[in-house]
Amino acid sequence: LWIVLDLNGAAHRGSGPTSTLEYAIVLAASLTAELLSGGDRRAVGLLAAGSGPDGPLSVTVPPLPGKGHLWQILAALAPAQQGDTPLDGLLRHNRELLGRGQTLVVITPDLTTTSAAWLAELLHLRRAGVVSSAMLVTPAAADSPEGQAAGQEILQELLARHEIPAQFLQADTPLRAALTYRRR
Predict the structure, then answer these.
(1) pTM for the full model?
(2) Alpha-carbon distance 170 to 81, whole Å?
(3) Which member of 1, 109, 157, 182 has the lowest number of beta carbons within 10 Å of its beta carbon?
(4) Looking at residue 154, what is its pLDDT?
(5) CB 73 within 8 Å of CB 32
(6) How would you write the pLDDT of the chain (184 residues) with one tens digit per residue?
């Protein structure tokens, strides 16, 4: 299973802990922890393209099973910041890496008309045998632009029409703790 995290700055809204960027990163980390902590021996990897302290940052952590792999993904997420690579470009650039029998979970705040481009990439990958689903991060109530609901409904309809499971999560909604550690 690949978690594909959209770090394109043009798609993100808000600032601080309720920004769509921060929420998407926490969501990717939480989903990884949840998937790797189960007894199913799932292999989880991460794809993202943003910027880091030293410039452009391309993140490719191949899927591996086990709780120890969680720390590799968390280390890759820690320095991640928004960049300028659109989600469709990230998916297109990694087509060769994504093959038959793999699964993608796309985490993105892109609910605009450009979402048709990344949706087209998901459909292309489906023809190659890759199953996809989407977790769409909507801005916090205070950061929601006018017309957001209309765009969300159109995207939801498109995803449903193409049988791509989707879940919408508002950036100020608390997530359930997937992993807790207590120091002794």
Answers:
(1) 0.88
(2) 20
(3) 182
(4) 80
(5) yes
(6) 999 999 998 888 888 888 999 999 999 999 999 899 877 778 999 999 988 677 777 899 999 998 889 999 999 998 888 998 999 999 999 999 998 889 999 999 988 756 788 999 999 999 999 999 999 998 887 666 665 666 678 888 888 899 999 998 888 887 766 555 555 5
Q: Which two tokens stand for residue 104?
A: 């993608």
- Residue 5's H or E segment, with its range, is strand 2-5
Q: For residue 131, give the nearest of 152, 108, 102 by alpha carbon.
A: 102
User: Which position has the token pair 């989407």?
Assistant: 134
What is the model's pLDDT at position 31? Answer: 92
- Distance (Å, whole) CA 33 – CA 51: 23
Question: Would you state the torsion angle of the CA atoms of residues 2, 151, 25, 107, taken in this order, to the nearest 10 degrees?
Answer: -10
Distance (Å, whole) CA 146 – CA 104: 30
143-172 burial, b if ≥16 CB within 10 A, otherwise e?
bbeeeeeebbeebeeebeeeebebeebbbb
- Identify whether the C-beta of residue 68 lies closer than 8 Å to the C-beta of residue 95: no
In the sheet that holds 44-52, the strands lie side by side as: 55-64, 44-52, 2-5, 103-108, 131-138, 166-170
Helices assigned H by DSSP within the chain:
20-37, 68-77, 87-93, 115-127, 148-161
Q: How many residues does the chain have?
A: 184
* Contact (CB, 8 A) for 148 and 111: yes
